[in-house]
Write a sequence for this structure.
């Protein structure tokens, strides 16, 4: 069943100690190379994926460029950038396969939001990139008006909290994308909520493994993939497993 559907893995991390790593709140992750990723997902029909920069990788793109070269066609990058980045740097990163900028509000706090609006419009105008938010949904009501006025946005890990699910539902109704990832991070019944989220906006949900699940209470398991099939039915999973993410990330751009 794992290889019955093509999967564009919308959220994975590659951690290579040959490149700079930065402690975040005293945390440094174990290594998880592209070899490790390919070994772990060998049972899946992987057609591509989004390599996402973690807080522990700071503004380094060298690891990301290396991983994209190794994993090859179909894979794209999500990086973290300072607001001082030049237009030329953004355009060059786009040529190398970067497709989005991540704002890690969960780990870095509200200071991350200072340049969100300006950066979101700038990267979209320059390269048609979107912004990705690692944020607890309980904080989303304060951001709602900002987010619905940005050109392109996605939210990680279903928003994490049951407390903010109503705001998440409103946001995906405004075409904000939502990563169905990190099921071991959330505090609600994923299987119960997926059909409702999918019915609100069938183009919003994007599944990902979140490998290697750094700091998650429960790491990714194959049963998470199967749970999506159980929740949505075999006829309803192509969008969430591949189509929605491919349309957003445009790996063949």
């Amino acid at each position: 069943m794992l290889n019955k559907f093509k999967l564009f893995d919308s959220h994975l991390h590659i951690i290579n100690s040959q490149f700079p790593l930065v402690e975040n709140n005293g945390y440094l992750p174990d290594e998880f190379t592209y070899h490790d990723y390919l070994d772990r997902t060998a049972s899946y029909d992987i057609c591509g994926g989004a390599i996402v920069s973690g807080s522990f990788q700071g503004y380094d793109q060298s690891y990301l460029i290396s991983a994209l070269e190794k994993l090859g066609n179909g894979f794209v990058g999500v990086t973290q950038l300072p607001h001082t980045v030049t237009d030329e740097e953004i355009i060059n990163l786009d040529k190398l396969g970067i497709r989005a900028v991540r704002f890690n509000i969960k780990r870095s706090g509200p200071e991350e939001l200072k340049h969100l609006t300006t950066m979101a419009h700038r990267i979209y105008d320059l390269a048609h990139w979107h912004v990705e938010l690692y944020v607890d949904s309980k904080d989303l009501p304060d951001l709602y008006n900002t987010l619905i006025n940005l050109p392109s946005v996605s939210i990680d890990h279903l928003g994490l909290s049951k407390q903010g699910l109503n705001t998440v539902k409103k946001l995906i109704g405004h075409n904000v994308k939502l990563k169905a990832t990190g099921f071991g991070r959330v505090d609600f019944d994923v299987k119960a909520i997926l059909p409702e989220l999918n019915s609100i906006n069938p183009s919003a949900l994007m599944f990902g493994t979140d490998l290697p699940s750094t700091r998650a209470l429960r790491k990714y398991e194959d049963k998470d993939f199967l749970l999506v099939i159980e929740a949505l039915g075999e006829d309803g999973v192509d969008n969430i497993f591949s189509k929605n993410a491919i349309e957003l990330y445009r790996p063949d751009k």
User: Anything to note?
Assistant: Residues 195 and 232 are 6 Å apart (CA to CA). The chain has one domain: 6-249. Residues 6-249 form a domain with the TIM Barrel fold (CATH 3.20.20.140). The chain is about 35% helix and 15% strand.
